[in-house]
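Long-time lurker. I teach an intro course on protein structure, and each term I like to show students one example going from raw sequence to a predicted 3D structure in token notation. This year I'd like something fresh instead of my usual example. Would anyone be willing to generate the tokens for the chain below so I can use it in lecture? Attribution to the forum is fine with me.
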Amino acid sequence: MSDEWYTPATLFNQLGLRFDLDVASPIDNNGHVPADRKYTINDDGLAQPWSGRVWMNPPYSKPSPWVDKWLSHGNGIALLPMAKSRWFNHIMESDAKFILLPSNFKFESPEGKPLSLMMGSTLWALGELNIQAISQLGKVR
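-- Reply from a regular --
Happy to contribute to a lecture. Here you go:
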């Protein structure tokens, strides 16, 4: 399974935010992320400095180091799967707030086709404005 699952534009329209940085952007920059700067796999977003409000839809094949760096950064929104894992326990114990996305939430393939995960999706926020933005989409926990 590929890690190239793009966030749909409708989610960004609902959030109404602009991001300073997309830390895990599609290599062809075909994504819908409203961000001033983007790191692709070629840039190695984990090795680069992060600044400002970040958007993170990390590779789901190995989200742990991305979650750790996002938590340390402390300002942004992350799209992550529900998971039985150490990284999920770590984020649950942090100051980050989250919402559960609807069960019919769909990603987009590089070709623009809808893709569904077998598990639920969550949207996490750190920073007051980011928490307010996700609260428009569901109950913040």
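Some talking points for your students: Residues 9-135 form one domain. The longest strand covers residues 76-81.
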